[in-house]
């Protein structure tokens, strides 16, 4: 479970280094959408429009907070995403539906490749599962603001009630951005993990104290590297580089 998150996010990072080819083909998940027809042609836009360069995704703001609604084959969760590029850190605080607070997963990633995955004690239910922490060290840092560079434009589609431009990157992610405001609305991983952006607060920064991993992350000097993930990311990183 912990490493699944690592897997998803760190893979995007390895993809973001260039728009080149090289992502190994993965068995298509049922939820992957069929490529969109050229909506410009279908809707009869004028020729100037049709011949213009395709739109490109807006780079992520250097700091923002977002609440994400996640649906993974029917299992629902909420993520607080704190993206903080200038400070080289990214935080996913993941709550599964109707679970106790001691099962909230904190996925704290640093740009030096260190990630901490931990839970915190639930002070209201002190007898519940003891808190735990795992760390991992990878070759790549956090997502860069321009990680969507090189994505292929697929056209426009309505999603969640918003008219969106849609891009696909390396059969890995489908990304939907509001045509008018340029805010991300939705993205979908090839695994079927479906993300809906509920809030998008540009410039919001989580206070420094909240970025401190708990002491038990440092007590057991257990620098764990998931060799499967590391090898995979490394391989792609090299191919793209
Ligand atoms: C979650 O996704 C499944 C398909 O995987 C869908 O059937 C279901 O309606 C979705 N649930 C919500 C709350 O969006
Ligand atoms: C990366 O940075 C974090 C936060 O400052 C730190 O806890 C961690 O030890 C660093 N990792 C390495 C490999 O230096």
UniProtKB/TrEMBL annotation:
<protein>
    <submittedName>
        <fullName>Uncharacterized protein</fullName>
    </submittedName>
</protein>
<keyword id="KW-0732">Signal</keyword>
<feature type="signal peptide">
    <location>
        <begin position="1"/>
        <end position="22"/>
    </location>
</feature>
<dbReference type="InterPro" id="IPR038941">
    <property type="entry name" value="At4g14100-like"/>
</dbReference>
């Amino acid at each position: 479970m912990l490493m699944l998150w690592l897997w998803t996010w760190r893979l995007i990072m390895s993809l973001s280094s260039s728009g080149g080819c090289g992502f190994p083909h993965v068995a298509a998940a049922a939820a992957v959408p069929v490529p969109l027809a050229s909506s410009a042609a279908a809707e009869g836009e004028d020729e100037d429009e049709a011949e213009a360069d395709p739109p490109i995704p807006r780079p992520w703001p250097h700091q923002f907070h977002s609440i994400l609604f996640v649906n993974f084959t029917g299992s629902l969760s909420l993520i607080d995403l704190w993206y903080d590029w200038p400070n080289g850190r990214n935080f996913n605080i993941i709550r599964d539906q109707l679970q106790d607070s001691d099962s909230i997963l904190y996925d704290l990633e640093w740009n030096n490749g260190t990630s901490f995955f931990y839970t915190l004690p639930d002070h209201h239910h002190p007898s519940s599962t003891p808190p735990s922490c795992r760390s991992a060290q990878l070759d790549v840092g956090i997502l860069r603001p321009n990680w969507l560079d090189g994505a292929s434009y697929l056209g426009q589609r309505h999603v969640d009630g918003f008219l969106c431009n849609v891009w696909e990157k390396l059969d890995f992610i489908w990304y939907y951005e509001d045509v008018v405001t340029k805010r991300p609305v939705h993205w979908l991983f090839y695994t079927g993990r479906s993300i809906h952006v509920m809030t998008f607060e540009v410039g919001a920064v989580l206070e420094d104290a909240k970025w401190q991993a708990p002491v038990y992350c440092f007590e057991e000097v257990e620098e764990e590297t998931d060799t499967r993930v590391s090898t995979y990311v490394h391989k792609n990183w090299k191919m793209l580089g």
